[in-house]
Design a protein that fits this description.
Rossmann fold, seven-stranded mixed sheet, 9 helices, binds S-adenosylmethionine
Length: 227
């Protein structure tokens, strides 16, 4: 799938799903989303500013704030209804703010020590996103990208395919999620995000590291900007 068509899926996937997102992501990943977020958090360095791209309802953003209570944190997302849910959770987190913008086109005129994102890479163009990240990253800063990957092992992949057939049927009961349940597996099968972003990070001189999670059903890619 070309990047453009992946990006076109974003309004279809996210315009009607904000209110149920937190429950659905936990249920449909069998709680693995929580484990994956913990692995992301382990990689967030002790630092004073973090930009969380495609922050959605703020699941990862608030976990970063718990780890770094004194850090300035900015969550950016393209879907206002997701940010509305995130803002409702703000309460006493004074150091978090949220902004509705396209991450690929971000031009904030400020730099951060760390840039995180869970589930954005497959929707974006690697070159555009990494260039934007580099413009917003301090020297020595770290980019942490996480997303789904298609399992390589044949048996695991068969079970993974079967699971999405079941999820497709569940879409009849949850009509707001039907587009996601039907089209997400195709998007994950076809995306080359991990290779594309790794190659792009290397091209721009970042020090790159990869971790596959839960039988390669998702992966984390990190890149450190040299000082
Ligand atoms: C599956 S949600 C993930 C939310 C959150 N990161 C989490 O892990 O719970 C994906 C989010 O990516 C956002 N998104 C997709 N493309 C984006 C872009 N180009 N710029 C900003 N946000 C984007 C969507 O609006 C949606 O809220």
């Amino acid at each position: 799938m070309k990047t453009q068509s992946a990006k076109e899926l974003v309004p279809r996937f996210f315009e009607k799903t904000a209110h149920t997102y937190d429950k659905i992501v936990n249920l449909t990943t069998f709680g693995k989303d929580k484990y994956w977020k913990k692995e992301i958090i382990k990689k967030v360095p002790n630092c004073s500013s973090v930009l969380d791209l495609a922050c959605g309802t703020g699941i990862l953003t608030f976990q970063i704030a718990k780890k770094l209570p004194d850090a300035k944190i900015l969550g950016v997302d393209i879907t206002e209804s997701y940010l509305e849910i995130a803002r409702k959770k703000l309460k006493h987190y004074q150091k978090i703010s949220f902004l509705c913008q396209d991450a690929e086109k971000l031009n904030l005129g400020q730099k951060f020590d760390c840039i995180t994102s869970s589930y954005i890479p497959k929707y974006c163009n690697a070159e555009a996103l990494i260039k934007m990240c580099l413009n917003h990253l301090n020297p020595g800063g770290k980019i942490i990208l996480h997303d789904f990957t298609c399992p390589k092992n044949k048996i695991v992949r068969s079970l993974w395919n079967l699971y999405f057939v079941v999820l497709h049927l569940a879409g009849f009961l949850l009509p707001n999620w039907e587009d996601v349940f039907v089209e997400l597996p195709k998007l994950i099968r076809e995306t080359r995000w991990l290779d594309d972003y790794e190659d792009t990070m290397k091209k721009y001189g970042l020090q790159v590291d990869k971790q596959s999670l839960t039988l390669y059903t998702s992966s984390i890619l990190t890149g450190i900007k040299k000082i």
